[in-house]
Amino acid sequence: MEDKQRLQLGGNTDWMSRLPEELLDVPLWNLALPGSHDSMSFCLDVSSPVLGSEPGLLRLTDRFFPCCTRRCVNRWATTQQSILSHQCDLGIRFFDLRIARKPKGGRKLFFAHGIYTLITVKEALDELSVWLDAHPKEVVVVSCSHFESLTDEDHADLVEFIFSLFGRKLCSSQETPTLRSCWSRCQQLVVSYDDQQVAPQHPKLWDGIPYWYADSSDPEKVIAYLEEQKSRGRPAGFYVCGLNLTEDAPYVFLHPLQDMRKMTMKALSVLLRWTGEQHPGPEGGGVSVVCCDFVGDSRFCSLVIGLNYKLAARPPASSSDAAGCFHSNQPDISHPT
């Protein structure tokens, strides 16, 4: 069956539960996991201001011409089109969550990419929890990062909410999770918390996950960058190969009729061809998480999921390989914009 047909039929909703027996004891970071870049950017709020961390010129433009500025930011900062549960149904098992406090949002926390989202953090995580309840053999990795304008109290409240909501579903960072071990313990969620003050205090929070991205609008440069990074050896645990393109001010100015989706669709065939040539696993060059924009618009999810069957056809890794891949915690590469 064609990848596109499988997507249309919802064939990837429970893909982990259908993996071959020989993959059930493989550390999760040695499987190929489809991920969405800036997972919550589908619901950006054009009435909200530009983030304080954005360049000064953009913030100045937003101050005097807010309507035009925010519409433009929305066009280029929107990288996904559907809610988390639908992304899960497509097969996504890694979420890139950029968390922020709105200037006039009270104690509620939101997500952000250029501007803030309409949906709160609690609403999105509640939705994810409901989906996990309905799919007990699926395991998801959530990367919480950026934390724009959060206070110590905000961090404490957020961590408490995560622990209260997900409880026993959380995978400990002190263990080596596999599908079989997660199923036996009813664990379904790895939470990476990219704050070096908070994460070490809680064994159920994982350190930041390295995210490789090229910071380029050229798909060939993206591939060249990823190949260069792979040639240096893969990180020990979870890490992300970002297929996402990045625009800059000159590019936006020279392409007034484009937006992020058009730019992505134009480059997607090149990026997916590279993806299909990859393989997961602990050895050098083995991919872990692969992230993409507009994950519902192509065969991306099926392509990444299919990489795992290459691993199933190989001899099993030795116990020393598994031990050497214990939980990377090396957030030495910053998150993409």
Automatic annotation (TrEMBL):
GO terms for molecular function: phosphoric diester hydrolase activity. One of its GO terms (biological process) is lipid metabolic process. It comes from the Eukaryota. InterPro entries: PI-PLC_domain, PLC-like_Pdiesterase_TIM-brl, PLCXD1/2/3. CDD domains: PI-PLCXD1c. Signal peptide: none annotated. This is Phosphatidylinositol-specific phospholipase C X domain-containing protein.
